[in-house]
Amino acid sequence: MSQPHAKPTLADRGQSLGMRLITRAGGLDAMKNPALRSKVEKVLYRSARQGFKAQVTAGRVFSARSGSGSPTRSRPTRPRAEFDLTPTDDQQMIRDAARELAEEVMRPAGAQADTDRTVPAEVRDQAAQLGMALLGVPTELGGVAEEASALTGVLVLEELSRGDMGLAVALMSSAAVANCLVNYGDSDQQATYLPAFTDDQAPATGALAIMEPQPLFDPAAPRTTATHDGAELILDGTKSLVVGAGTADLLVVSALLDGEPRLVIVPPATPGVTIADDPAMGIRAARTGLLHLNQVRVPATNLLGSEPDHADAVARGRLAWAAAAVGTAQAVLDQVTGYTTDRTAFGEPIAHRQAVAFTVADIAIELDGLRLVVWRAAARLDRGLDAADQIAHARVLTATHGSRIGSDGVQLLGGHGFVKEFDNERWYRDLRGAGLMEGALLV
Amino acid sequence: MIDLEVPRKFGPLLKQAAGLADQVFRPISRKYDLAEHDYPHELDLMSAVIDGLSDSGASQGAGARTTSGGGSEPAGVGAGSRAATPKSGNVNGSNLSSVLSIMQTCRGDVGLTLALPRQGLGNAAIAAVASPEQKARFGTKWAAMAITEPNTGSDSGAIRTTAVKDGEDYVLNGEKIFVTSGERAELVVVWATLDRSLGKRAIKSFVVRRDNPGLKLVRLEHKLGIRASDTAAFTLDNCRVPAHDLLGDPEIRIEGGFGGAMQTFDNTRPLVAAMAVGLSRACLDRTTELLADAGIAPDPAAPARTQPYAAARLLQLEADYEAAYLLTLRAAWMADNGTPNSMQASMAKAKAGRTCVEIALACVELCGATGYAETELLEKWARDAKILDIFEGTQQIQLLVVARRLLGLSSSELK
Q1: What ipTM was reported for this prediction?
Q2: Could you please report the per-residue DSSP string of B266-279?
Q3: Into how many domains does chain B fold?
């Protein structure tokens, strides 16, 4: 739910967006680079220059607006053909900011947020100030992206999920909806819905609802249907594990229309939309809900993108979840390396035993393998290459090795892993979800 | 900028390596699997091509036929990492081209790749630790590597072969087994200890000419796989080696001696990982074809659990393949860029080694009788695969290397 705030001045906003990044990145060598500094300053300037009409009301109203006629898309990154694992200066800066947010704010809040099934206001505010949800939104549309990069999104999700996956999902759920509007929306849809998401004091929240409850669910064949009725679409069906369903300002749901899976924009206040709680094994801070659509009528103009766009959203969602798994698996590895060298049994650290040490080594190996596959997939998307295979591989590795890492993370601590004294039991629950969730996230 | 694609400049090289795999190796794969210990003369006919590949870094690469060093040298991994001069920016060099081309040749045949003349592991040792004068003398010769002894496998610090200085010579005595290309090579690099009471640091490597009368070929092994590659056992019986054929530093130092010899492994492990990746690719390609004929087509866009078991299994195998492939490229890329890669090399070897065994055995299973019978090469690849999880450090040794690095433990703490 949006929090009411005093209207910020331009200077305030400049400070909260770009300056915040600069401040946090101040110690980085990268910022000594004049070219990069001027780029950051340009972002700062643009975001400050653009007027924001903050509409802070309970149950946000989106009034239809007309765009220029041609939608604004993020620019694709420049192609380069060489093997390289070094992020750009921009990516490193954003990654460092995300890491700081994760370490200082999210990690300490993770356990309680899991219990309370809510995102603390402080966490949401800090993430909003860093512009984390706007990384895929071009500066022309009020975001912070100079160029579209799934890779940047992946690096950020890794870091945030290293802090806490549940919180990361809750925070980046809105980014998924914003990215959908940027990537697939027409100019009217962008003009109508995006400004609320780029409002840096009270940014709108959104949920990309693709998942359905039935076993063997395939996003390409949702049971949720959309049918034409004059200038309207009528939606029927059930979406499950919808992130922040009860508080989302805007929903994007998938439905079968004329035999094709499509995305449809659904304001939650539309008659026929009902929401029930849908708590799950993990990612509990994201407060998942069940979304029922019963004869829900929306304008046909709410159809978002094409059928290939739907497939693209599904693929990018899976990649995002794989990136989240990388981050949480890294948290597991960080923790067990320390724990197994500290914990003694039979007179020496348990890490001195091969059965323990090899398990740690296996976590590291499978984690790095998954991370490299995720990076390759994202880099291919950014270069405009087909990434279907790599995304499928990342998905499979997340479902198998990701889950295994969660399990090993508990096993290495024995009984201590099973109790909530440590984070391992939460990681176990979260990592199980990352390999099966659809939608919700998007890079 | 993060990107994990093969640079375009390697295209011609890899095309050549692929040609070697498909046009030369594949047609004779079964022949030399059945005729173990026969020398594959076809490789001699192709020697011009192979030397060309080698000079351009596309061979097995461990050899480094030209070992003069310098930035222009594109040859072996061993030479490559040493030649890597700090340059500004990202380097895609000989280490990367070597692992990529080995993936290609081993997609053709691992045994025949190992049997390529003048590309032995001994050449990697020479490239890694020899003096410039020694490199000039040995660089163009085919060198095998003799480390393992009947009672000393992974514990190479415990070897018993002795070297005693006698005038201008060293006199070597002991037994060596599992010497790849030991029969065919011109030189054998023999690990021996100057003083067993001083442990690892007294271990030195000696270049022994194959025609040295003290170096006696005992037998050639009969093996599970890679039968095209000969595996020899030797005895060293008062084998006299000129003192200037001791590789590197003749003094026993507190630090470094054994470490220097062991560094060979940092350079050769990504190569063996690449062999495993190449063999995995062969299995997956053929199995995908055979299953397609049987009506199975994995759909990357659909959830694995909604697909037929065989399709879902192929997806899983492809996923693990890709992880192994990228871990291998990373280890080579780090070497190209002068970044210490000992742990990453072992990660690549561990993942690629176990993955190739899993993939090869699974592909046999998925194809049933066709996979198990000799009409296809799948059963051969499943036999070849196993060595790749063993030589240049077993799976368990790789995990030890990785775990010690991760956990900051010494070899006395994590045994």
Answers
A1: 0.91
A2: HHHHHHHHHHHHHH
A3: 3
